[in-house]
Recover the amino acids of this structure.
């Protein structure tokens, strides 16, 4: 007994080190799989508020640029609206709405790591929940991962765990959108069969298989494509429409049918 | 004792804030975010309790992790250099550093430089190996360690000479 106590006292620093290292590794390795730790994320109260205050100061510096972007977006939407077939006022039936949208702003962006997360200033209070899609006026940004009362973290498409259903525009050839962790302006689309005719410059949009994003939200254009090791699928490099280094205003999409879809799918697999 | 205690608390908070609000957003060349909070371990008094030092380093790493959504990568890397600091110091300063009168400010520039460089090298090696976590990307790890390590080193040296530690 005496010897055990002596041993512990003698190596207490080493034991402390090993203990803390195991804690850290457990948290890290656990999150190498699909989900971010719900404890270590910047949607927590302290980090969120400090980022919020800092965002409040720096947000003034690029107001002009942001205004111009919003103006362009409005112009595009008005162009669509004025050219609609039925120009009469469209009555929206609240029972037939499939998606609702929450607007928000990015308060912390990162794109230099291998697993990038973005923090936004909307949370449970604004009915933002896990697994909602987040887009900008240009294209897809990511999926909500953790929420606190006032803030949420978003798993960026620049994240090695990210996996989004995407397809080639105007066709039904879909694959998975992933990121290899190398370049912050390019993501990869895999699992497109080699029979599909591809051209450099083709547009990639979100697919219909996902219950997170609506169909046909733009992602990017094809930069180059190769066959993968199995020689039967393409591996496509995609130039993103979004400039991931410069993101301010985002839209968070709530799919009202998502719960029903998931319940149904679960029921089917259980049978 | 108390004055050094308060200096360390203030240093802790300031380094965390500078790291997360300024240097994590730098993204020089798209991926270089220097880690200046390592200076805390460089400046921390040598004669203090080692267990407390490791505990404090864990807290430091954890605070950075909280802000930057990096799980516990910073914590793991920081406690590693906190634990290895005496070994590195013995290697750099020789047996001298165990004397009562030893002060970091009395050592030569070359020694201070080597000490800091070794701290940063070990820290970044642990950090990026855990972050990337695959030997297939060994080249990427080496590239990141060298590029970000040298950026951290330059900035730490600048900060080190700006806020010298003559008091301790």
């Amino acid at each position: 007994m005496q010897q055990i106590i002596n041993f512990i006292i003698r190596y207490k620093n080493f034991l402390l080190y090993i203990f803390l290292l195991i804690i850290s590794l457990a948290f890290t390795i656990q999150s190498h799989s699909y989900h971010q730790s719900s404890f270590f994320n910047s949607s927590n109260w302290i980090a969120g508020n400090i980022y919020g205050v800092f965002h409040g100061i720096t947000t003034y510096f690029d107001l002009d640029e942001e205004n111009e972007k919003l103006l362009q977006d409005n112009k595009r939407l008005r162009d669509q609206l004025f050219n609609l077939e039925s120009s009469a006022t469209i009555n929206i039936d609240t029972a037939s709405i499939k998606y609702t949208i929450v607007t928000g702003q990015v308060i912390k962006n990162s794109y230099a790591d291998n697993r990038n997360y973005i923090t936004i200033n909307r949370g449970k209070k604004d009915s933002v929940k896990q697994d909602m899609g987040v887009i900008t006026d240009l294209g897809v940004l990511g999926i909500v991962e953790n929420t606190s009362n006032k803030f949420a973290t978003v798993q960026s498409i620049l994240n090695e765990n990210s996996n989004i259903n995407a397809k080639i525009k105007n066709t039904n050839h879909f694959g998975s959108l992933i990121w290899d962790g190398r370049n912050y302006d390019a993501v990869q689309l895999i699992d497109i069969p080699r029979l599909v005719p591809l051209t450099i410059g083709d547009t990639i949009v979100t697919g219909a298989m996902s219950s997170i994003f609506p169909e046909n939200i733009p992602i990017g254009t094809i930069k180059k494509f190769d066959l993968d090791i199995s020689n039967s699928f393409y591996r496509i490099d995609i130039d993103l429409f979004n400039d991931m280094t410069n993101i301010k205003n985002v839209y968070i999409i709530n799919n009202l049918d998502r719960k029903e879809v998931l319940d149904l799918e679960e029921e089917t697999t259980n049978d | 004792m108390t004055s050094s205690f308060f200096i360390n608390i203030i240093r802790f908070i300031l380094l965390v804030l500078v790291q997360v609000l300024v240097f994590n957003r730098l993204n020089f060349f798209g991926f270089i975010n220097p880690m200046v909070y390592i200076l805390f371990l460089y400046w921390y008094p040598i004669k203090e309790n080692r267990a407390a030092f490791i505990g404090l380093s864990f807290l430091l790493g954890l605070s950075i992790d909280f802000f930057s959504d990096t799980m516990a990568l910073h914590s793991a890397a920081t406690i590693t250099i906190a634990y290895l600091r005496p070994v590195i110091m013995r290697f750099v300063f020789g047996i001298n550093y165990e004397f009562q009168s030893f002060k970091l400010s009395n050592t030569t520039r070359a020694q201070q430089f080597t000490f800091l460089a070794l701290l940063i090298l070990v820290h970044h090696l642990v950090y990026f190996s855990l972050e990337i976590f695959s030997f297939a990307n060994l080249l990427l790890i080496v590239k990141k360690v060298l590029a970000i390590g040298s950026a951290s080193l330059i900035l730490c040296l600048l900060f080190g000479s700006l806020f010298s530690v003559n008091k301790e």
